[in-house]
Each structure stands twice: as C-alpha cells, then as structure tokens.
Amino acid sequence: MSAIINENVGEEKLPAMETTPDTSKNGALLSIRDLRVWFELRKWGFGHAGYVRAVDGVSFDLGFGEAIGVVGESGCGKTTLMKTILGLYQPTKGDVIFDGTNLAELVPRQMRAYRSNVGYVQQDPYGALPPFMNVQRILEEPMIVNGVKSKEARDQRLRTVMSEVKMTPIDDFVSKFPHMLSGGQQQRVVIARSMMLEPKLIVADEPVSMLDASVRVEILRLLRGLQTSHNLAVIYITHDLSTVRYFSERIFVMYAARIVEKAPVDDLLRNPLHPYTHALLAATSDPDYRNALTFKEVPPGEPPSLIDPPPGCRFHPRCPHFMEGLCDVKEPPEFEPEPKHLAACWLLR
Amino acid sequence: MMSESQQLLRVRDLKLYFRTSMGPVQAVDGVDLDLDYTQAMVILGESGCGKTSLAKAILRLLPRNVDSYTGEVYLDGTELMGMDDEEFRHNVRWAQMSLVPQAAMNALNPVLKVGDQVAEPMMVHAGVKKATALLQARDMFRRVGVPVDFMSRYAFELSGGMRQRVAIAMSLVTAPSLIVLDEPTSALDVLTQANIFNVLKRLKQELEVSFILITHDIATSSELADRVAVMYAGQIVEVSDASRFFEEPLHPYSKMLMASVPRLRATQEPEFITGQPPSLLNPPMGCRFADRCPSRFDKCSEEPPTAGQHRVQVKCWLYE
Predict the structure, then answer these.
(1) Residue B3 phi, psi (nearest 5)
(2) Does any CB of chain B come closer than 8 Å to the CB of residue A123?
(3) CB nearest A239 (choices: B189, B195, B222)
(4) Residue in B245, B246, B270 nearest the CB of A217
C-alpha cells in the first residue's frame, strides 16, 4: 500500500481516462446506472442482521459543465450517493461511470488519479480545514499529494485559484490559519482547495447551510461563476429548495434512497409532479407576514426506515393521493409526462 | 402609546458584557424591548450579533465570565434586575418564562425518560407530586403532537422533530407566560420545520403565551412573527410589526438582509452584503453598520438616534 502512496503520479494525466477521450465528448461526464449502496447491519458483531439501503436504485446522467441540485431530507441517502461518486464508498450494485470509465475497474493508482478529477466542498468549512495548517499549506496539500514537485508551479497555481475565489490581497491570506478567517472566507478556502487540481466535477455538500444569510448568496454566486467559467460540472446537495433555483439547471428530488423526480428547475417549481415534491414546495417559506395567519399542510408521519422500506412506492404511507392495491404493491417506474421532466408516481400513468 | 397593563415584557438599556483576555466583549449593548401579552416577537440577526446573549440576559442564564450586566427588565410589571439569583430561580425562570435551547436535541438528558423530564420542572417549581406532574406532562405531549406512549422512551429513541417537540413540551409544562425559543428549527428538515411551526402557532392560539423567537432564518421566522426586531453588532437597529417589516423594512441593514433571502415564489436575484460586522471588542463610534452601508453620510460617524413612533422604531440617521 505504501508503495502506491509514495509513487509519484506527477503531472501526467490519468491513464485510464485518456484512453477513452472520444466516447465522452457527446456523452455524459458522469453516468450513474441503477446504483445501490447498502450497508450491512451486524448482530453481536458478526451475525447478519439485514442492510441499510442508503441508496437503492438511482440512475442519472450528468453532462459536461452541467449543474444539478439534489434535494432531500436528512437520511434520504443524498450524502451516501455523493460519497459513492467521490469513490469513498463501494457500490453494492450498479455502476458509476466517469468520463467513459467505470470506477469499479480502476486499480488504486488510477483511483487516486480519478479523485483529482473530482473536487469536494464540505458542509462545515471550519471542520473541513485542518486547524494547524495555514492557508498556503492547506491549498498546497492536494498538489503535494498528487506529486507537483516544483514549488514555483504550486505557488503559481495557488495564486491563480486564490484570485479566482476572490481571496485578495493574496499575501494577507496565505499566512493565516482557519480560525483567523470568517465563515465565508473559510468556505472560500475550501472551494479553492477543491479547485487546485483543475477538477471536471465538483461535489458540494450543503456548502452554505452553516453560513449567514448575507454571505450565502456570495458563496453560491462564486460557485456558479467558477462553474460557468471553467465549464465545471457541479452536484449541489442541499435541503433548501429556495437556493437551488439560483444555482442549477436541473433538480433531483430524493426520498428514501430513491430519486422521485428529475426536472429542469423552472419546470419543477412551476409544475411539481410528485406528491412529495409538492409537500416540500408547500413547506418552504418565503418571507411574508401572511405565513403567520395560516397553518401549513404537511404530510403525516416521517420518512421510512431504510432497513425495511415500505413495499411499492416509498411515499405511499404519507401520500394524500394513495391508491390502494397499486401504490402499496408495485414500485412506480419513471414517467415522463413533459419532456425532460420525470417522476416516479402512479398518478402519472 | 400602549398602556402599561398590556405589556408582558419591558426591557430598557440592557447591557451584557463578557470578560475576555482581550478586553470586554459588548455582546448586548443597550437593548430596549417591549412585548405585549400573547405576542410573538422575532429577533433576527446574523451569527455573533448578540441575539443568543440577549436571550440569556433576559433569562439571566449567565456564564461565569460576565463583566457587567445592567439595565432594567420588567416582567408583568415586576422589576427583575433587583431580584437576587435565588429568588429569580424560584419565582421567575420556568415559573414565568422558560427557554427552548438551541439544538434542543442535545439539551435532553440521555438517561432520563422524556416523560419524566417534561414532568420535572412541575415537581421542582410547582411542588406537586410526581403523579400529578406526569398527568400534566401527558397533556403537554398531546398538545405538541407527540404520542403519549413516547413518554416512557429515551431521547435517543426519538427523531429530531420529536425531540424538539419534547423540548417545547418541557418549556410549556409550568404554564409560563413567556417562552424564549433559540433557533428552534435550524437543525431540522423542511417538513419537520413546517410541523414545528404549526405546533407553535396552535399553542399561541390555545394557551395564552408569548414567544420570543431568536433566529437567523428570515423566511421561516415569518411563520410566527407578530413583531420583528433586527439586531446588529449587539444593538437593535429596527423594531416593527411583521406586516410592515416583511413588506417594507426601513433600516438599510434590514433592507439588505431582506434582499439577501433567496425566494421560491419570486424571481428577483438575491443580493449579498459586502464586508463583515464589526468586532464587539471595540465597536466603532457612531452607527455600527456605517462601514457596510450604501446610504452612509457625514452624520453616521455619530451615534444614531432611535426614530419613529411606538410601533416602528429605527436606529438610523436617515429617519431622524
């Protein structure tokens, strides 16, 4: 193992990726095919006691330079999905295909090269930055790990990225430690770090949920700017529907380990098809004093356990349009009543 | 002017400074507040503006490093600042006002059944027997929408939303007239948030109780607000009726804060506020927002007056 870590990958680009450049140009950057990620539960430490089906049958394509928002409640599997894309979890079944290469086929050395193609922006910037490193060291770390030996090359790249994330004057920031920065500045460092190796895809896990309202918009705009100027693909994971529309082209709504609706942002907001999406939209407030005068309609109950999910449609125990004998028996396939607007609900059959 | 008898809480020039190695931090610096009976007031502000310290100052839940704690607080016409700590603990906290702490999920005792925890304030403050207190707790569980058989469970067996409801039930059980909610839903999902606000709205109608809701989330705060107070750098810069505030905020900071909210049902692009709030160790002279304010002019280097009538008050030279 240590041989692999010490080996110098250098500035050479990913061998596995370069062998198949042409298939990707008109195809997708990232294809997820019937992905299932299950975690085994153990009894007494060794006996099998079932699975937590954190991601259970997810498929989608992400184009080059496309930004998508994945919306769902805590425990719906969105973080597991993201970590599988980052190569931190192994799929139980199904494939993650990045730029024409199936991640399952990569040997560890290629996997490391793959990771330099995907940037990761964490939720809690303070927790994601090592407190004992200054900004210079934090931003150099990915390049050192990936064998950029020349100090000048590292320094030059660092300066380019820092000016891209608008951390100027650069010299004031490089010597600072994370605790000396504000929340917004910390998140800029996290974003800069994810950009160091010129990734093609950035996965942002609730990048603004820990920040103040006045800073949120600034960070979202920064991400959006980087996405368009570098033709980056971005997966933006959030529970907040109101920020997604300013950030992504498409929204995926996740419920109980599945994607229940996929649609372009405006279509989803104008005409939500799945009852769960409906409920989410209805529960999201805009600042308006009239909100205090009425009660909100909220579906009863709570999301199901992923150890033993309900049969058929997973939303049926809470759904106002529940049809007996159908919704609780057969799993709904994806219907496409409008072009590019898909939802897994029997109402649309 | 509202008559005195309608006022539940009256705070004048409240100051709470903390001692640190770098000097006193002026977390709450001269706050005035008025709250009527059965009203809900939202205190909006960004992290570090002193909103949680204000809640602690009202409830006198002070940490050890208090440098100075002065001002006037009247609850139901009674002056509280003159009371000694023991009297305050016996007769005011829980009995007349209670707190739903931030991250209520961690505020519950992991080794006590939640039913016993909700009953406990009754036993301590009303001096009733456990059986009576449990009966009262049962009623509170019903009111906040937690199934009564959950009373014999432990906190870890409940979901986040259920724990939050238990924390609310606990704050209600002694029938206080004021409940302070510190970021009650910031860790919860959208649907759970909507549920909790439904519960709070119902409680406000059914029980004669007033709320102070402390939050940074402007959109959801409108679910409960009758009055809105905006806090910046330890001071309240605007107080207004919710119906007025959400339509037309007056202080430049309130305006920019409202403009920063991403909206689901409108198309305007949200804007951000450049710069950072000042340090509370050594806040600037004059208006504390002046450095970031687009309408800044000469006068802003002097302390701004509080302008306006009783219902709407703005601390800004523009409205002098």
Answers:
(1) -75, 150
(2) no
(3) B189
(4) B270
Asked whether the beta carbons of B260 and A213 are under 8 A apart, the reply is: yes
Is the Cβ–Cβ distance between B103 and B132 less than 8 Å?
no
CATH of the domain at A144: 3.40.50.300
Question: Mean pLDDT of successive 10-residue segments in chain A (349 residues)?
Answer: 38 40 61 94 86 93 94 88 92 93 90 91 91 95 91 94 91 92 92 95 90 86 92 92 87 95 93 94 92 91 90 94 93 93 94
- The domain tally of chain A equals 1
Residue A265 maps to a domain: no
Which residues in chain B are contacts of A73 at CB distance < 8 A?
Answer: 189-192
* Host domain of residue A190: 121-248
Locus of tokens 């920040």: A211
* β-bridge pairing B23-36 and B7-20: antiparallel
Of B11-20, B297-306, B308-317, the one with minimum mean pLDDT is: B308-317
Q: Is residue A107 part of a domain?
A: no
Q: Which residues pair with B11 in a beta bridge?
A: B33, B73
* Residue A175 placed within a domain: yes
B242 in a domain, yes or no? yes
The tokens of A148 are what? 């950029």
| Contacts (Cβ under 8 Å, ≥6 apart) of A225 | none
**Number of C-alpha atoms within 13 angstroms, CB side, residue A130?**
11
CA nearest A281 in B: which residue?
B264
Contact B107, B101 (CB under 8 A): yes
Query: CB A213 to CB B40 under 8 A?
Result: no
CA–CA separation, A280 and B194 (whole Å): 10
Q: Which residues of A touch B256 (CB under 8 A)?
A: 214
Tell me the residue range of the domain where B294 lies: 4-96+176-319
Is the CB of B233 inside 8 Å of chain A's CB atoms? no
Q: Does B37 map to a domain?
A: yes
The number of domains in chain B is 1
CA-closest candidate to residue A192, choices A215, A174, A210, A172: A174
Pairing state between β A118-121 and A201-205: parallel
| Token pair belonging to A309 | 């999910």
User: Which pLDDT score, from 0 to 100, does residue A22 have?
Assistant: 41
- Closest CA of chain B from A87, distance in Å: 27
**CA gyration radius, chain A:** 22
Q: Which of A188, A212, A265 would you mutate first to test chain B, the one with the most B CBs within 10 A?
A: A212
B41 touches chain A (CB under 8 A): no
* B213 in a structural domain: yes
Distance, CA of A272 to CA of B292 (rounded, Å): 40
pLDDT in tens, B191-211: 989 999 999 999 999 998 999
H helices of chain A, where?
Answer: 2-6, 15-18, 22-26, 78-85, 108-115, 125-128, 135-145, 151-164, 170-174, 183-195, 213-229, 241-244, 265-270, 275-283
Taking alpha carbons only, the member of B62, B53, B14, B60 closest to residue B34 is: B14
Q: What is the CATH number of the domain that holds B62?
A: 3.40.50.300
Q: Residue A290 has what DSSP assignment?
A: G
Answer yes or no: is B141 within a domain.
no
Distance, CA of B88 to chain centre: 19
How many Cα neighbours within 13 Å face the side chain of A125?
28
Q: Which residue has the tokens 């304030």?
A: B121
Residue A137 in any domain: the answer is yes
Q: For this complex, say whether ipTM is above 0.90.
A: no
Within 10 angstroms of residue B187's Cβ, the number of other Cβ atoms is 18
Residue A75 is predicted with a pLDDT of: 84
Give the distance from residue B173's alpha carbon to the nearest chain A alpha carbon, in angstroms.
23
Number of inter-chain CB pairs under 8 A, A vs B: 121
